[in-house]
């Protein structure tokens, strides 16, 4: 059984993303939404941790939330994919459950 984890808080304001990554299992997916999209940016103190976890879980950011925050897709960590709202729905349907990290 796989889980879609959603993180909506900035990794620079809370520990939600780190907690999420520590609880993910192989085959899970993480979708960073709202201010959580900052966790997908290369060059931060968390980049290496996020990239390493991306070897066993799928990592996504919600593209409209990136755009709203002025983040270009070229600034994403390698392996982090942008997705739109339809892709968000597809991720929910693909996984057995969804866990939101606040």
Q: How many DSSP-defined strands?
A: 5
- The CATH architecture can be named as 3-Layer(aba) Sandwich
Major sheet: 5 strands, parallel
Please trace the helix and strand order, writing H or E for each element: EHEHEHEHE
Structural class per helix/strand content?
A: alpha/beta
Q: What gap, in angstroms, lies between the N and C termini?
A: 22 Å
Rg, alpha carbons: 12 Å
The tally of helices reads: 4
Helix coverage percent: 25-40%
The global form is globular
CATH secondary-structure class: Alpha Beta
Blueprint (SSEs and pairs):
Layout: E1 3-7, H1 16-23, E2 29-32, H2 47-53, E3 58-62, H3 63-68, E4 80-83, H4 85-94, E5 97-101
Parallel strand pairs: 1-2, 1-5, 2-3, 3-4
Task: Give a verbal description of the structure.
With 102 residues, the protein is α/β, with parallel strands linked by helices. It has one domain: DsrEFH-like (Hypothetical Protein Ychn, Chain: A, 3-Layer(aba) Sandwich), CATH 3.40.1260. The protein has 4 helices and 5 strands. It has a 5-stranded parallel β-sheet with strand order 4-3-2-1-5. The longest helix is centred in the C-terminal third of the chain and has 10 residues. It is globular, with a radius of gyration of 12 Å.
Q: Which key terms come to mind for this protein?
A:
5 strands; alpha/beta; 102 residues; Hypothetical Protein Ychn, Chain: A; five-stranded parallel beta sheet
Characterize this entry briefly.
This protein is an alpha/beta fold. Helix content is 30%, strand content 23%. Strands 4-3-2-1-5 form a five-stranded parallel sheet.
